[in-house]
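ok new one. same drill as before - structure tokens go in, u give me an amino acid for every spot. 208 of them this time. try not to just spam alanines like last time pls lmao
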């Protein structure tokens, strides 16, 4: 409920408004200060990411889109398993950008955990449950177990359910991704997304 709010030991408004500054002043060595340049950090993002991290049960990084996870997990020659019935934009990115850089794309249905049969040799399993728009579901825990047995990373698109209903990181997923433009913030009120993970190295890779 209060994730990202001002600590009760601090004076001031319980929830600060947006800060629009892009440059900051600080005493001492600037490299030791959390606020250096607005493109890298700002207090509004920090509060939002802190709140998302509490909800997801990990650390969250805000983006224009949750699909940013592709950039830290896939390289030429890798195989990604995607839901054949998942959100159209993901399949469109896969058939254009991912395949053009040499990533092999396998599609399998969400229902009945059909993606399990496509995991051999894969680098990344992308789950969407419930799917958009058909609302098919899978057993995330079972798919995570099957993926881990084959050393496959798992990204769960949690856009439709939101962390209010399910927390894929607690079920063993490597990443949670979401379009926050939808149910989390009110449809189209904001245009942004996030990636969450419990792995410190992956958090740093995502931020970079």
């Amino acid at each position: 409920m209060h994730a990202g709010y001002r600590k009760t030991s601090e004076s001031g408004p319980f929830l600060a408004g947006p800060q629009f500054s892009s440059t900051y002043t600080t005493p001492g060595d600037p490299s030791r200060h959390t606020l250096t340049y607005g493109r890298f950090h700002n207090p509004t993002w920090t509060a939002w990411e802190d709140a998302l991290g509490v909800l997801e049960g990990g650390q969250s990084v805000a983006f224009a889109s949750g699909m940013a996870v592709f950039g830290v997990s896939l390289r030429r020659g890798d195989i990604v398993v995607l839901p054949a019935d998942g959100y159209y934009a993901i399949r469109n990115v896969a058939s254009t950008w991912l395949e053009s850089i040499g990533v092999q794309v396998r599609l399998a249905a969400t229902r009945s955990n059909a993606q399990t049969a496509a995991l051999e040799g894969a680098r990344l399993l992308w789950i969407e449950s419930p799917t958009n728009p058909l609302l098919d579901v899978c057993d995330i825990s079972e798919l995570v177990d099957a993926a881990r047995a084959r050393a496959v990373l798992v990204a769960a698109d949690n856009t439709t359910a939101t962390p209010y209903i399910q927390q894929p990181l607690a079920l063993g997923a490597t990443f949670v991704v979401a379009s926050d433009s939808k149910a989390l913030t009110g449809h189209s009120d904001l245009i942004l997304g996030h990636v969450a993970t419990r792995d410190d190295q992956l958090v740093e890779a995502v931020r970079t």
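Strands lie at 59-63, 79-83, 104-108, 124-128, 153-157, 175-179, 193-197. and btw The radius of gyration is 18 Å.
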